[in-house]
């Protein structure tokens, strides 16, 4: 993709059939990801970049692992919950190198909590073929086993689950712009970035195409659709909803402790989740030396970063994209 060389300095490709803009190294991993063996008790966290992925990963990993804060404070989140296509972002000589993250997912012990930003049509095929099992699970859940996820597991009735997280386009644009600078792979202006973002040129293509594919399947029993804004507004409610979806229960103290652990200040200072280790490996330029992965953590931060014209452009694009879809802006 010629026109976006300036958005990602290592160059990008288009992946068909959707035409999603993506990283060249993907070609070497595409088939393995598509053919990945999905496990019945997997949880897949699917997001467009900058929508609250890390936040959700830490929440879900803890819910799936009996709130094991000790282990969460010893092992990096990137190891506990691998980013399946991370290898695709590597490959260029001056870019930091990552290992084989598809193999990391393959080798991870169950229950796996997998992170991906892949659009729906690039996800492993098996995510969709085990769908009927979910209906059985849901039915059984309502009948008998709501408290006993382990019984369902032994009966082979638990299907994989997808937790999708969406975020408002203006905040994503700003956060993604800073992310590119942080990872030292973009040297352009915010204005150029916003235009390219609307045209679907950054890695992972168009935000709205990504979100709306999952919005269409939001009511399937194997999908939970959360938003960054809901998490900011009422984290305990989202944690409870997510726990229920995963068939876990929390008492008041457990809920309170988990919400404190997931607060922005706590995560910002938590070296096991804040990506400081990865960023340390990147040759940081003087432009991005002040930037951090845990940047602002706010809803509406775009107000201090975008011009009224840029905000209006994104709003107009959003209105066009969500028209007729029933999508509710938060
Ligand atoms: P900002 O750049 O707007 O600050 P992702 O994990 O999908 O890359 O998303 C990163 C965004 O989520 C960043 O947004 C980051 O600050 C924010 N974030 C991460 N953890 C958070 C938390 N506990 N509370 C609020 N925001 C959080």
Automatic annotation (TrEMBL):
It comes from the Eukaryota. Keywords: Transferase. It holds the Pfam family Sulfotransfer_1. SUPFAM superfamilies: P-loop containing nucleoside triphosphate hydrolases. Residues 41-134, 161-326 form the Sulfotransferase domain. Gene3D superfamilies: P-loop containing nucleotide triphosphate hydrolases. Belongs to the sulfotransferase 1 family. PANTHER family: SULFOTRANSFERASE SULT. This is Sulfotransferase domain-containing protein. It comes from Periplaneta americana. The lineage of its organism: Eukaryota, Metazoa, Ecdysozoa, Arthropoda, Hexapoda.
């Amino acid at each position: 993709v010629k026109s976006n060389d300036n958005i990602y300095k290592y160059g990008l490709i288009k992946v068909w059939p959707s035409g999603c803009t993506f990283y060249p190294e993907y070609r070497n991993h595409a088939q393995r990801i598509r053919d990945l063996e999905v496990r019945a008790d997997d949880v897949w966290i699917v997001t467009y970049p900058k929508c609250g992925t890390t936040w959700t990963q830490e929440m879900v990993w803890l819910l799936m692992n009996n709130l094991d804060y000790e282990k969460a404070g010893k092992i990096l989140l990137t190891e506990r919950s691998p980013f399946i296509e991370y290898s695709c972002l590597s490959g260029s000589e001056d870019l930091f190198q990552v290992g084989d993250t598809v193999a990391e997912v393959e080798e991870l012990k169950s229950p796996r909590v997998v992170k991906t930003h892949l659009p729906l049509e690039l996800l492993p095929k098996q995510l969709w073929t085990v769908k009927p099992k979910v209906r059985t699970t849901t039915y059984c859940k309502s009948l008998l086993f709501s408290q006993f996820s382990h019984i369902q597991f032994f009966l082979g009735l638990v299907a994989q689950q997808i937790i999708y997280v969406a975020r408002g386009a203006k905040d994503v644009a700003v956060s993604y712009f800073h992310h590119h600078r942080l990872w030292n792979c973009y040297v352009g202006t915010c204005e150029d970035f916003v235009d390219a973002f609307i045209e679907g040129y950054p890695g992972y293509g168009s935000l709205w195409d990504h979100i709306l594919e999952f919005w269409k399947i939001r009511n399937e029993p194997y999908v939970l659709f959360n938003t960054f804004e809901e998490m900011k507004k009422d984290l305990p409610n989202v944690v409870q909803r997510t726990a229920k979806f995963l068939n876990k229960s929390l008492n008041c103290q457990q809920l309170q402790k988990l919400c404190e652990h997931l607060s922005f200040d706590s995560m910002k200072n938590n070296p096991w989740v804040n990506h400081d280790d990865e960023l340390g490996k990147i040759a940081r330029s003087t432009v991005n030396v002040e930037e951090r992965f845990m940047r602002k953590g706010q809803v509406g931060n775009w107000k201090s970063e975008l011009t009224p014209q840029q905000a209006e452009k994104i709003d107009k694009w959003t209105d066009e994209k969500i028209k007729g879809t029933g999508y509710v802006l938060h």
